[in-house]
Each structure stands twice: as C-alpha cells, then as structure tokens.
Write a structure and sequence with these properties.
Blueprint: H1 3-8, H2 12-30, H3 39-52, H4 70-81, H5 88-113, H6 116-128, H7 130-136, H8 142-161, H9 167-183, H10 188-201, H11 206-235, H12 245-252, H13 255-261, H14 266-287, H15 292-309, H16 311-325, H17 332-335, H18 343-359, H19 367-387, H20 396-413
Helix pairs in contact: 2-5, 2-6, 3-4, 5-6, 5-8, 6-20, 8-9, 9-11, 10-11, 10-19, 12-15, 13-14, 15-16, 16-19, 18-20, 19-20
Length: 430
C-alpha cells in the first residue's frame, strides 16, 4: 500500500491515537511513575485529596496563592474511582486527556485545511513532540488545558464556517473557555479577546455581532461566577479565579528572573531557585497579617516598583524572556543533552511561523481564522512572558497552531504522492 493510502485511510487516525496513548504511558512508567513530582504537581495532587476527603479546597499550597480549581476537582473525581496513594493515577489520567486532545486537534486541522495528510502529520508531530510529552508525564494542568483550548477553537471555527447559526453553540463555546480559565487563570485573556473577534467576523450585521459576543461572554461568566462567589464568601474579597497574578508578576519582572535567565548550568539554576524561595519566605513574613487580596496586591506593587526604578533593565529582561519563550530548543542548563530532542520540533515551529505569516497575504487562507490563531499566539506570548516565573517551555498550545502551516507546505511541495484526490471532508467525520 502506498504511503498516501495510509494518510487517507479512515483508520489511520486511530492508530495515531493508540500511539499517542502508548508513548505517554511508556514515558510515565519509565521515569519513576510513583515518585515525587514538581511543586505544581504536589499541590494539585494534595488539593484533590483534600477535596476528596471533605476537607475543602486549600487556601493555598506550596506557593502563596490559591490554585485554579478545575484540575484538582477533576482529579478528586478520578481519585474517588481509582487508587491515589501515588502520582501514577494522575499521570495516567493526563495520558487519557492528552490523547483526547490529539483527536480534537486532528479534527481542527482537518476542518481548517480540509487536507487529511496535513491533519495526520500534525497529529503525529503532536504525539512525539517533547513539549507535550514533558507536561503530560507530570501532574500538570497542560493536558486538560490543551484539550479545552483545542475543543473551544474547533467548535469556534466550525460555527464560523456555518456563519454562527445557533446561539446555543456559542454559549457552549463560552462555557468551554470559562472552564479553560478555571484550569489556568491566564487563559482569561482569550475570554476577553475572542468576543472582539466574534464582533469583527460579523461586522456586516452589527446586531448579530453584539448578540453573539454577549452570549459567548455569558457562557464564560456563568461558568466562572460560582467559583468567584465562593472566593468572595471564603476570603471576604473579590477574587475572580486565583490571587496568583501578583506573585507571578513579581517573580517574572524583577531580578529574580534575571538570575534564572543568566544561569549557565544546572547548579546555577538551582541557586537561582533557592534565592527565589528565600525571597518568597522573606516577603511572606511581611504580608502574613494581610488579607488574601492585599497580599496579592503587595506582590504586584513590588513588581511595579521594580519596573519604575529599573525600566531599561526591565525592558532587557522582557527581551530575554521573549527570546526564551520562542526559542526552538529547551534550555541546556535545565535539560542537558535532552534539550537537543526538542530542536527538530522547534525548527518545525519556526518553519510553521514563516508560513503562518506568509499565509496572511494569501487569498487561499481564511483571514478571519488567521486572526483567531493570532489571538491565541499573542495572548499566550503576553501571559507567558509577563507572568511566568520561569518560561523554559512555550505554552504547548502555541506549537499546535503554528506547526501545521509548515507541514501543509512540506506535504504539498515535496511529497507529491500525497496529492491525490481524496473524498471531501467537512471536518465532522473521520
């Protein structure tokens, strides 16, 4: 059978999904499946156990802010059914979530390009991309966040291609993006920018444009508001999702981040991390009598004060963070030789970025979908550069939407045997 026949075969995607799940399970079982996790993983795991045991959601974990609730609550349901003495259950659950995300991602690429080889190749890259494998092998929110993100965008593009026929569809999309915010609070930027995109897409009918955007916002608000109300009654102060903005802004916009960026080996990175913890403990001593919101505002003001007093250095700091965010390779001081495993995928990302920019000037690619992807890229970059204590890896969502542009060009330019007539696909069927 020719390679093109495999790429067009209906069952190929199911083999890709099986490979996706097996790759993640093998990696999990290879790297100490029941051993310690990161600080984030420790918090998510213990928050889920606290909820499961009826002890309520913790005020904060290892870091001085409340974690967004969706992932720990979902884990608590999983822990109710399966053993949870170690981190293994959560990691295997992530493998399931990421496999589902791979399938929805395939559907999305098929819907955008209507080209099955591109969708299959993009899914295969998703399966073996170390950026995805790294986050999946730990107890982190990324697998759930990517699943929500690609599902929301898939439904959004599908509704757009049908000219937004149903308000119920837009309301559902608003709910999904509201859940994404409850998974990672920095996804709030997408909930703010997507209504603008909805209005832009429907400028010819302004009443429809406003109505659609309001329904989307309503879906987001109704999803997030129960948690916000809970926070108000728990803390006595308005906290939308998490009070972590101040702390994240402080870490990412002061000398602390510079020490991290200037590290040339793993020991120097560890020393920068120890310095962060010492400073955090010192600040926590100063704010221990303050309320939750006052504490967050105090951290935020520390970051703003540093910017005022060190503006040129802060600008340089953000240039370095931007370069690190878009670097084609993980940091050598962090990962050693394993960083080189990320390089081929980083180069694919750069190739995809070139053709993404080029597609703006092409009449063959839908300009509104291009703008939607731009919102995802710009939003991820802003939040990643401005509020991450240690960038190290891009938000995986960025690579997912950029790499297919390069793959589409590669398969159409060099893999001529892929270019045979295939049955039309509307993005719904496999």
């Amino acid at each position: 059978m020719q390679l093109s026949a495999y790429l067009y075969h209906k069952r190929t995607i199911y083999y890709v999904l099986l490979l996706c799940f097996l790759c993640r399970v093998i990696l999990i079982l290879t790297i100490d499946p029941t051993g310690d996790d990161t600080v984030d993983g420790y918090d998510y795991h213990n928050h889920a156990i606290s909820v499961l045991n009826g002890e309520g959601y913790p005020l904060h974990g290892s870091l001085p802010f409340v974690r967004p609730p969706l992932y720990p609550f979902l884990l608590s349901i999983v822990y109710y059914i399966f053993p949870h003495e170690t981190y293994l259950t959560a990691r295997l659950f992530n493998a399931v979530l990421d496999t589902l995300a791979c399938f929805v991602f395939y559907k999305l690429i098929l819907l955008i390009w209507n080209n099955k080889p591109t969708a299959i190749l993009a899914s295969l890259v998703y399966v073996v991309n170390p950026f995805y494998l790294f986050f999946n092998a730990r107890v982190r929110v990324e697998a759930l966040f990517i699943l929500l993100g690609v599902t929301g965008v898939y439904l959004l593009v599908r509704e757009y291609k049908k000219d937004f026929p149903r308000l119920s569809g837009i309301f559902l999309i608003g709910i999904i993006f509201g859940l994404a915010c409850l998974c990672r609070s920095n996804a709030t930027i997408f909930a703010l920018l997507i209504p603008v995109w909805l209005i832009y897409c429907n400028l010819k009918n302004r009443k429809k444009a406003v109505l659609i955007s309001l329904v989307f916002v309503l879906g987001c608000v109704l999803t997030i508001s129960p948690w916000s109300v809970r926070n108000y009654y728990r803390y006595g102060e308005p906290i939308l999702i998490s009070d972590g903005l101040g702390y994240a802004f402080w870490i990412s916009n002061t000398e602390i981040k510079l020490d991290d960026l200037y590290a040339t080996n793993y020991q120097e990175y560890l020393e920068a991390d120890r310095k962060l913890w010492r400073k955090t403990i010192a600040v926590e001593e100063q704010v221990k009598s303050k309320s939750t919101k006052e504490r967050s505002d105090y951290y935020l003001n520390l970051g703003i004060e540093y910017i005022k007093n060190n503006f040129p250095k802060w600008v340089w700091l953000n240039v370095l963070k931007f370069v690190e965010f878009w670097s084609p390779m993980a940091r050598l001081d962090m990962q050693g030789w394993k960083a080189f495993l990320t390089l081929p995928f980083g180069l694919l990302m750069l190739l995809g970025m070139f053709f993404y920019i080029k597609s703006f000037f092409s009449p063959d690619f839908d300009r509104n979908i291009w703008l939607l992807i731009a919102i995802l890229i710009v939003g991820s970059t802003i939040t990643g550069v401005m509020t991450w204590s240690s960038v190290r890896f891009r938000v995986p969502l960025v690579d997912a939407f950029i790499i297919p542009f390069g793959l589409f060009w590669l398969q159409s330019k060099y893999l001529k045997y892929f270019n045979r007539n295939s049955p039309p696909d509307n993005g719904i069927g496999c």
